[in-house]
Amino acid sequence: MERxxxxxxxxxxxxxxxxxxxxxxxxxxxxxxxxxxNIQKLTIRKxxxxxGEAKEIVLGSTPAxxxxxxxxGYIALTRVCxxxxxxxxxxxxxxxxxxxxxxxFFDLEGHVLSGPPPKPLQTLPLSVEGGNIIxx
Length: 136
Ligand code: FES
Hints:
By secondary structure, this protein is α+β, with helices and mostly antiparallel strands. The protein folds into two domains: 1-31; 42-135, Rieske [2Fe-2S] iron-sulphur domain (Rieske Iron-sulfur Protein), CATH 2.102.10.10. It has one helix and eleven strands, in the order αβββββββββββ. The chain has one helix at 3-30; strands at 42-45, 54-59, 62-69, 73-78, 89-91, 96-99, 104-106, 112-114, 123-124, 126-129, 132-135. The strands form three sheets. It has a four-stranded antiparallel β-sheet, with no helix packed on it. Strands 5-6-7-8 form a four-stranded antiparallel β-sheet, with no helix packed on it. Strands 1-11-10 form a three-stranded antiparallel β-sheet, with no helix packed on it. Residues 81, 83-84, 86, 99, 101-102, 104, 115-117 line the site of FE2/S2 (inorganic) cluster.
């Protein structure tokens, strides 16, 4: 193989790698990860979550959170941010869910308050039966 042809192939390979390394993050930003939940049932005692408190769980393979919203009752949401998939955290003092990656904020029903998330957090089915909370 002559030197000129070898350099041409090498530069083409390096250029393709560079383009792919820029295109993939851009594609992930434009098309956020799909929200698939492998929903199963999980039972938690009501006493485990006091009013105003939250409990982080994993439902199937999905990180989720159950919040006992003062005066409203229980709600279950996925913790997977709809922007790029970081895990949101409950901020008890501010009564919000916060995504630490890019400062996304959600209310306690999962609606976007501010930041880059394009959609609300996914709500998970929840029912209260006797002294138990059943998620899924
Ligand atoms: S991943 Fe970017 S705001 Fe949550």
